[in-house]
Amino acid sequence: MTGVLDRFSRYAPPDEARDQRAARDGFGGIGVTLETATNDFSITEVSAQSPAARAGIRIGDKIVAIDGTPVAGRRAIDIVHLLRGPIGSTVALTIERPGVTGTRDFRVERALVIVPTVTASRDGNIVVFRIASFNQSTTQRVTDGIAEAQHQANGHLAGIVLDLRGDPGGLLDQAVTLSDLFITKGPIIATTGRHPASHQYFAATGHGIAPTTPLVVLINGGSASASEIVAAALQDVGRAVVIGSSSYGKGTVQTVMHLPNDGELTLTWARLVTPSGYFLQEHGVVPTLCTSGLTDTDSSVDATLRRIGDPPAEAARPRASLDDAAWSVLRKTCPTQQGSPALDLKIAERVLSDPSRYSAALGAIHPAGVSALAPQTPPAALTPVGGGLSSSSQ
């Protein structure tokens, strides 16, 4: 039934729905990530301050039994579900530790675990956030990462890079709050549909923690949904230079309904409208600086930087004024590509290292107008679903 509506509406049976909720909102678990490819269930990561970390479980430990039942030969998804359970409940683990004879037993009390979606790295005074998807912890993890980077840079952070390449999306509210970190005022995104309640307007609160720090966003053909909201919002208000290739163009909003059988019904009910007034659906975000088809060479970097201030003719027009034919032409000037080439980050760092170049790149896009939808309170269930998350974290 949902298949004939559109490609983003769908039904998830109880087991699948449980994993989807866990990816979005967290779950009762112990805070470890397992190596599931070989089914030997070795622990590859232990989250800081997690129940597993407090119990003394380490990276490299191998789970051989859960609650007294051997795990050998079990499916990875079965082990995932055995490790998860109600918050406050306990699970008994039998562990083999490299270099230690015999096994060790641990009894661990489950707590709320939210899968990390953000990793941070630094290059001098530039901090790079790789955001894999948007769940309930995404904005807070970026907030904490910015605070830590500013501390390490003694308050002189030179720039921030949001790497959204391959990010399939996630929660709408997290895309809004992440954008809000960098915008002082004005619109972030709006939604519109047939139902009056689908008309929503999201604007900056004025409480951003990095409203003036130079900012670059990296996107590619795998950037969709919530990641496109962030890229479009920051590009449209002149807050960030967007680098990479044209994004996917997934500009619809889904509402998720929890069903009596514990399954979920996901239905498309609205379209996304950017601050400059164009629909994201099928249009997506076209970068300020395009790297499609370029090789990772110094000459490619220099050639891209020379194009600052000289965008294609279609890119120089207000994007809300483009019809579908003009959008097709614009997207063809920067075809979608997959992967995360090092070239994108090199260009980002060069742009951020030169204030005059950064300023010129910000001025290369000329959006006009903002969404005229009236502000309303967004329903909590709204989520632009862009893709699944790994279920290997427990």
Describe this structure in words.
The protein is 25% helix and 24% strand. The chain has helices at 14-25, 51-55, 76-83, 138-152, 172-180, 226-236, 298-306, 324-332, 342-352, 355-362; strands spanning 10-12, 27-29, 32-35, 42-46, 62-66, 69-70, 90-96, 103-109, 111-113, 118-123, 126-131, 159-163, 187-192, 200-203, 215-219, 241-244, 252-258, 264-273, 289-290, 382-383. α5 packs parallel to α6 (226-236). It contains ten helices and 20 strands. Strands 1, 13, 14, 17, 18 and 20 form a six-stranded antiparallel sheet that branches. A six-stranded mixed sheet has the order 10-11-12-15-16-19, with helices on both faces. By secondary structure, the chain is of the alpha+beta class. The protein folds into two domains: 27-113, PDZ domain (Pdz3 Domain, Roll); 118-383, 2-enoyl-CoA Hydratase, Chain A, domain 1 (Alpha-Beta Complex). The relative contact order is 0.15.
Number of domains: 2
Nearest-integer average pLDDT: 88
CATH class of the largest domain: Alpha Beta
Number of strands: 20
Q: How much helicity do the residues have?
A: 10-25%
Give the termini separation.
33 Å
Count of helices? 10
Q: C-alpha Rg, in Å?
A: 22 Å
Q: How would you sum up the major sheet?
A: 6 strands, antiparallel
Task: Give keywords.
394 residues; alpha+beta; Pdz3 Domain; 2-enoyl-CoA Hydratase, Chain A, domain 1; six-stranded antiparallel sheet; 20 strands; 24% strand; disordered C terminus
Strand-helix topology:
Layout: E1 10-12, H1 14-25, E2 27-29, E3 32-35, E4 42-46, H2 51-55, E5 62-66, E6 69-70, H3 76-83, E7 90-96, E8 103-109, E9 111-113, E10 118-123, E11 126-131, H4 138-152, E12 159-163, H5 172-180, E13 187-192, E14 200-203, E15 215-219, H6 226-236, E16 241-244, E17 252-258, E18 264-273, E19 289-290, H7 298-306, H8 324-332, H9 342-352, H10 355-362, E20 382-383
Parallel strand pairs: 11-12, 12-15, 15-16, 16-19
Antiparallel strand pairs: 1-18, 2-9, 3-4, 5-6, 5-7, 7-8, 10-11, 13-14, 13-18, 17-18, 17-20
Helix pairs in contact: 4-5, 5-6, 7-9
